[in-house]
Structure prediction request, 429 residues.
Amino acid sequence: MEKSKAVLVIGGGIAGIQAALDLADMGIKVHLVERKPAIGGRMAQLDKTFPTNDCSICILAPKLADCYRHPNITLHTLSEVKNVIGQTGDFSVKLRKYARFVKEKECINCGECAVKCPVKVLDEFDMGLRKREAIYLYYLQGVPAVMTIDRRNCLFLTRGVCKICEKFCTKNAIDFEQKDMEITLHVGAIIVATGFDPFDPSGIHQYGYKRYRNAITSLEYERLICASGPTGGHLTRPSDKKPAESIAFIQCVGSRDLKNNRYCSSVCCMHATKEAMLAFEHDPKVKSLIFYMDLRAAGKGFQKYVVRGEQEYNISYIRSRVAKITEDRNENPIVWYEDPQSSKTKKTTVDLAVLATSLMPRKGVEELAKVLGIELDEFKFFKTDPLKPLDTTKPGIFVCGCCREPTDIPDSVTQASGASERAAEIVME
Ligand SMILES: Cc1cc2nc3c(=O)[nH]c(=O)nc-3n(C[C@H](O)[C@H](O)[C@H](O)COP(=O)(O)OP(=O)(O)OC[C@H]3O[C@@H](n4cnc5c(N)ncnc54)[C@H](O)[C@@H]3O)c2cc1C
Prediction:
């Protein structure tokens, strides 16, 4: 058996990025596979990060650039793993690299093509809160910083008409002749870092998501309050663009819930506190109410963060499970809950309701598990052993970040460094 020196990392969120950088710095060749047009994962969608309230993209961007430039890292964006055979130390991997229809080396990301594109579709990165064109930049600071043509919506690729982007591209970077490619890689170990998807709360009818415009999810809120987001960072309500001055944060939406996900999503108590703090920083008139079942602040400096929220940021924590949300004729959400002191039903009217939806395994995770020959646990996170918490059920394949279980950024990074060490043990033998 010939030992390969390279490692495959699947998923270019913060966990995959950290694992790739750690391995590359050890002198190991890394193939980083990301299915979206750019790396960055969910962290790129966040405004600030708890418990320091650092700007998320400011701490992520240097890592994105390091990944792109590192001589030991080969980035495969718009790519997916289709087949894996072999064993620890010697895996043969087939990737499918989807055509971008834009030449990466030629595109200077001037955006002229998008200005002329006649198509408008909901922007996935901004959680559908704004529209983008069929030729688009996945997000402003994304790496690689090049445009992509969305094959499902481009008029030329779907109906054979248009090509207006080609006409206006001064760099001749548009290439409709590009084809999807199959790439075969030989690697000694694999790290899976495919992250999470947010739970869709429209099935919890009583919270009115999708029926009430001012009931949004926490990831939508992150985009709303972010300076690079759809409102330029102004915290305005989707219904009438009025500034949100009273906000109810509803915790455990889809988590710790026998009908949906029984597990705790672990980051929501902290991100709700952060989101309420940010609202106050934008406008000190803002009053936030956080409705919670149990406040889980088990991390370095987390309890202090919650206390600061209460004392300095006009946040009230109310221990109560919200029964339902209705709305008044001005589309103000009305939150109905049991008052913990009097045990009486109470209601409060706010400008905006934010649903802290649970963190779930990425869509398509079963298929990936099958391709890799590894097992999932009862919730469809990758199965690990308590005494080997970064090992999957197949030797030579490791896991880190939110595809293992819901975790915050510091823990995702810690696990990524651990997984890269486990992989290095194999390829450096
Ligand atoms: C609203 C909200 C606010 C948060 N705020 C904070 C905070 O302030 N501080 C904090 O510490 N944590 C916060 N978190 C948690 C944080 O987002 C996660 O800890 C972090 O994103 C986990 O990173 P990851 O790399 O594991 O996953 P992800 O960020 O989900 O990245 C996974 C990557 O893998 C890619 N991928 C998926 N499947 C495949 C595949 N089959 N092939 C190739 N690529 C694939 C995805 O496209 C993605 O780029 C928050 C979470 C939410 C929901």
